[in-house]
Design goal:
Mean pLDDT: 97
Shape: globular
CATH topology of the largest domain: TIM Barrel
Number of helices: 12
Structural class: alpha/beta
Bound molecules: pyridoxal-5'-phosphate
Number of strands: 19
CATH superfamily of the largest domain: Alanine racemase
Number of domains: 2
CATH architecture of the largest domain: Alpha-Beta Barrel
CATH class of the largest domain: Alpha Beta
């Protein structure tokens, strides 16, 4: 069940007059509706803020729209920090949730007065040397083992490189208190693309109860409980969207269950760092069928490839694919939908029932708005595509031009061929 309405064949035809395929298309109106739904779900918490995970859709126009809607940003690299700064984010509008962080990035983040989220206890001394210890700091917990909701194992935090152990967290709080930290945040990210309504509430309870224990142990106070990213979207037609207001209500109950009895909660902001949930369903990769090939399997070759969207090649991820103008046509054929890379995993779909596709048809690859364009790469010399924003009034705007061969060659100096 899709959680966003796909662009019509008519709109794609209009865009196609000036923008060649492949390109990414994002729907402004539906994106902002998702943000408003999220903010309403956590409206019970005074300081609530969504820090949009920049890596999901790193485009300044998208970030500017989210900023205007009241979001902050979650960055984890220098380029993401610089992009956030240039869009106008500063101070506590920026989370810096990095790992294996280079010195210059801590220094840059401290210069912006971003909220630092420490991934490891050894980073205390590192940050003290590179940027300095701030008065407010967030710490990333990895509780280890399996992450279980009800009876189901939802993830294996113990195998993940992120965050510090519980013992390290306690030691870190004690040391940081000694170094002058006045208030703490807690952060965890235990599983990805979770459509279970209890994902956030279960993890939130862990963070809230840990905060109560830390206050009991060290008398420290807290400014933030950061639930991070990980809320999923329905990629397959059978999956159901998460009821975000239900998620917010369950987190609220756990917040008051944990904090009210001990007189905590006042001044503690709930934060989220969702990427996929916000932009995933409202972005599409638009491509054209350029070849049909019948050998041992039936192939439709398109002008996009895994270099534009690597999730299917990398994770075997399912993405819904429709044909513009044939949305309601019967699915009489079975195809592999493939790109041009010299790699056999360059497929957007395997054995996919589809309507009959003609060369020249426009194919829409759904749910590509997050971790789509941004995971792109240049293998086989394939170039990154344009990004287009569909405005609320039906007009559109190219918000990133397509890469050119000059861009691709920009880091090379061909004069060197005569010097070697
Ligand atoms: C990737 C990431 C996110 C966003 O994850 P989604 O799956 O897009 O919600 C948030 N926080 C951190 C620290 C991340 O690494």
């Amino acid at each position: 069940m899709p959680s966003a309405a796909a662009p019509s064949a008519e709109i794609l035809r209009k865009i196609g007059e000036t923008v060649p395929t492949p390109y990414y298309l994002y729907d402004e109106k539906q994106m902002l509706e998702r943000v408003r739904g999220l903010q309403a779900a956590f409206g019970w918490n005074t300081g609530y803020r969504e820090y949009f995970a920049v890596k999901a859709t790193p485009n300044p126009v998208i970030l500017a729209l989210l900023k205007r809607a009241g979001c902050g940003v979650d960055c984890s690299s220098l380029a993401e920090l610089v992009m956030a700064e240039r869009v106008g984010f500063t101070g506590d509008e920026i989370m810096f949730s990095s790992n294996e962080t280079p010195a210059e990035e801590y220094e840059y983040a401290r210069g912006l007065n971003a909220v630092i989220n420490l991934d490891d206890i050894t980073h205390i001394d590192y940050l003290a040397r590179h940027g300095g210890i701030p008065e407010r700091i967030c710490l990333r917990l990895n509780p280890g083992g399996d992450f279980i909701i009800g009876n189901a194992v939802m993830g294996r935090p113990g195998d993940a490189k992120f965050g510090m152990t519980r013992d390290q967290l306690f030691e870190a709080v004690s040391r940081l208190k000694g170094l002058g930290v006045k208030s703490f945040g807690l952060h965890a990210f235990l599983a990805s693309n979770m459509t279970d309504v209890d994902y956030y509430p279960t993890m939130a309870r862990l963070l809230f109860e840990t905060a109560v224990e830390l206050r009991r142990a060290f008398g420290v106070s807290f400014f933030m409980m950061n639930l991070s990213g990980g809320i999923g979207i329905p990629y397959t037609p059978e999956q159901r969207p998460v009821d975000i207001s239900d998620v917010g209500e369950r987190v609220r109950r756990n917040f008051s269950d944990a904090f009210a009895p001990v007189g905590m909660g006042e001044g503690i902001a709930v934060a989220t760092e969702l990427g996929r949930y916000v932009t995933g369903p409202v972005g599409w990769l638009v491509t054209k069928a350029i070849h049909e090939k019948n050998t041992y399997r039936r192939y439709i070759g398109v002008d996009a490839c895994a270099a534009n969207l690597m999730r299917p090649a990398m994770y075997g991820a399912y993405h819904e694919i429709t044909v513009a103008g044939k949305e309601n046509a019967p699915k009489t054929e079975v195809y592999d939908i493939v790109g041009s890379l010299c790699e056999n995993n360059d497929k957007f779909a395997w054995d996919r029932p589809m309507p009959k596709i003609e060369t020249g048809d426009t194919l829409i690859i759904h749910d590509a708005g997050a971790h789509g364009f941004s995971m792109g790469y240049n293998y086989n010399g394939r170039l990154r595509s344009a990004e287009v924003l569909l405005r609320a009034d039906g007009s559109f705007k190219v918000i990133r031009r397509a890469e050119t061969l000059d861009d691709y060659f920009a880091t090379l100096d061909f004069r060197q061929i005569n010097e070697v």
